[in-house]
Amino acid sequence: MRLINRRPSRGFSVFLALLPFLVGLVAYAIASDLRLAANPGDKLLPAFSTLADGIRRMAFVPDPRTGDYLMLADTLASLERLAAALAIAALIGLVLGLVIGLVPLARALLGPLVAVISMVPPLALLPILFIVLGLGEAAKITLIAIGVTPFLVRDLAARVEELPVEQLIKAQTLGGSTAQIALRIVLPQLLPRLLDALRLSLGPAFLFLIAAEAIASESGLGYRIFLVRRYLSMDVILPYVAWITLLAFLIDLALKRLQRRFFPWFAARAGQ
Amino acid sequence: MTAAISVRNVWKEFGDQIVLEDVSIEIAPRAFVALVGPSGCGKTTFLRMLLSQEQPSRGTILVDDRPIAKEPDADRGIVFQRYSVFPHLTALGNVLLGAEFAGAKATGRLFGRARAAAIEEARALLTEVGLAGQEEKYPAALSGGMQQRLALAQALMRKPRILLLDEPFGALDPGIRAEIHGLMRYVWNSCDITVVMVTHDLSEAFGLGTRVVAFERPRGRPEERARYGARITRDFALWPPRRPTALAASSRSGRDDAANPEPRRDDPAALPEGS
């Protein structure tokens, strides 16, 4: 049988999916053992027991100085920034994307501007943000928002332009005004696409979050990683990286579920 | 009697390419005109001009003796071959939309009693086109034929004077097509409406129309194609003249009537379909 026709069973699919993770873990365990055998004081690849101890210290024992559970506090601080920034970006992206995609005059006015702005590297603006907005939350949230908004605007404008022209003509023959068409035809069809675009911008959003926290912050996942780096605390850094990855994965999954739950027509429409 | 649509010396050019050349036609109220012709002969472009989706390069189009509106409006309904219905609205929502646009200028959403009245009207219309029981389904869950029935109901909600059809049944199976032809005949008989339909199916054109108009390029050699546009080369009124049955006489009772109206004995469309 040809390789292109061989499909794994359900159980085998799960096994195949887990296999690379297992291989990674085993490879890590072997490498860690080898290094620790040569030098018991090695900090680069801590043993699983050391990692577990690091997780216990960060997640389940209150910090002696502040009394906080550090991992929880860091997570909440980071997620707050991420949520605020993504909410702002989504709102701007939705409004500008809709207007640029639907109204040719707005496209002529704003399209080139957005295209230019989206080429500005957001991290290069970080010093400016810190100078103008100070070292507080505003600068970090603004950095993330600046980082993902141009992408959202351009993507959503493109999604609007992708709507079949027949739909807009039909809406006009039903007597729809521009505002009515925007509110009843375009916006509802844009919302599930916004969730897709947000999923795609999660990666960059986390990048800007960690970057901002690494440079100037007093809490947050990125702050913690860059703080303990001074002590080569791989037993904290590695669990944090895994935790951030898991968070991003769960947010992605939640957005996907949200789309399926609230826009059942969106997945079904594929055949049209 | 004034014409519902009169097209006078209309030309349509895209850049150097001449698509339509000096087209003139008068369409009487309550006519059912079928536009036929080979592909690329400009019949769809012609329909788009009647819809105001395209503007003529030269010449004038009058609707009820007034210059045609510059953009599509509620006087002229349309059913396209595809993408006529909105995927994010249920069947009921799709039909309701016309009433909501008319009744709620700012938001396009009706509430309370106005909404209840509109829903009742929309449900009646859905029943008439044979979609009773499908109100809550999204278009993706409807078959191609049902989607076109829905598109028709949606267009009729605003009671347009003119109904434009752009190969509306071209993508349907022959059996489904025959059923929806019955519905189309019923709609034309029971609504005060003038229909212009583009089709590539001659039996459909002669089966439904009161008049069949053929577009052709008299000069079709490759080097002539860009310089000479299509014209109206044939214009048949069907004999014996097919007239809409009196509005009062039509029964607006139920879906069986709607889907399978009694064919008249002299009706060529009563012949088997798909020939």
UniProtKB/TrEMBL annotation, chain A:
Leader sequence segment: none
Keyword check for RNA-binding: no
Gene3D superfamilies in alphabetical order: MetI-like
Pfam families on file: BPD_transp_1 (PF00528)
Assigned keywords, A-Z: Cell membrane, Membrane, Transmembrane, Transmembrane helix, Transport
TM region positions: 82-103, 110-132, 197-216, 236-255
Domain ABC transmembrane type-1: residue ranges: 75-259
SUPFAM superfamilies: MetI-like
Gene Ontology biological process terms in this record: cellular response to sulfur starvation; transmembrane transport
Major place of residence: membrane
Location relative to the cell: Cell membrane
Entry-linked InterPro entries: MetI-like, MetI-like_sf
CDD domains for the chain: TM_PBP2 (cd06261)
Family, per entry: Belongs to the binding-protein-dependent transport system permease family.
Protein name: NitT/TauT family transport system permease protein
Species of provenance: Prosthecomicrobium pneumaticum
Lineage start: Bacteria, Pseudomonadati, Pseudomonadota, Alphaproteobacteria, Hyphomicrobiales
From TrEMBL, chain B:
Molecular-function annotations in GO: ATP binding; ATP hydrolysis activity
InterPro entries: AAA+_ATPase (IPR003593), ABC_SmlMolc_Importer (IPR050093), ABC_transporter-like_ATP-bd (IPR003439), ABC_transporter-like_CS (IPR017871), P-loop_NTPase (IPR027417)
Assigned keywords, A-Z: ATP-binding, Nucleotide-binding, Transport
Top-level taxon of origin: Bacteria
Composition-biased stretches (Basic and acidic residues): 253-268
NADP listed as a keyword: no
PROSITE patterns: ABC_TRANSPORTER_1 (PS00211), ABC_TRANSPORTER_2 (PS50893)
Domain ABC transporter: 5-242
SUPFAM superfamilies (alphabetical): P-loop containing nucleoside triphosphate hydrolases
Region (Disordered): 243-275
The family this protein is said to belong to: Belongs to the ABC transporter superfamily.
Name this polypeptide is given: NitT/TauT family transport system ATP-binding protein
